[in-house]
Amino acid sequence: MSQVTFISPQGEKIVVKNAMGNLMEIATEHDVEGIEGNCGGVCSCGTCHVWVEPEWLERVGQASEIERGILNFEDNSNERSRLCCQIEMTDDLDGIVVKVAN
Ligand code: FES
Question: Which residues are near ligand 1 (CB < 6 Å)?
Fold first, then answer.
């Protein structure tokens, strides 16, 4: 029964309850604007870029080296950036909030 909240570039909140899978899949299934997931979640396109809300950063953990390599190509990446296809929903992340990077 894990819940995730996406904040769209316009500030709209999309709350998904009973979320399962990775955050990119959840976002695309719920038509979250700005999350495209063009590579299908294999960490090669960068179209699933989000900023993790600060209070969740520690629990989400660090990006892998490959993920960081993709994020380095994004103009708007910062220390809160993650590719959300690389974040698997778990009970531990129940309530997580991420903002679509814009
Ligand atoms: S969907 Fe392509 S990097 Fe996440």
Answer: 24, 37-39, 41, 43-48, 83, 85
**pLDDT for 59-70, tens place per residue?**
999 999 999 999
For the chain, list the domains and their CATH numbers: 4-100 (3.10.20.30)
Ligand 1 centroid, distance to 91 Cα (angstroms) = 22
- Take residue 74 and report the two structure tokens written for it: 């994004």
pTM: 0.95
Q: Nearest Cα to 2, choosing from 97, 98, 90, 99? A: 90
Helix %, strand %, coil % for the chain, to 5? Answer: 25, 20, 50
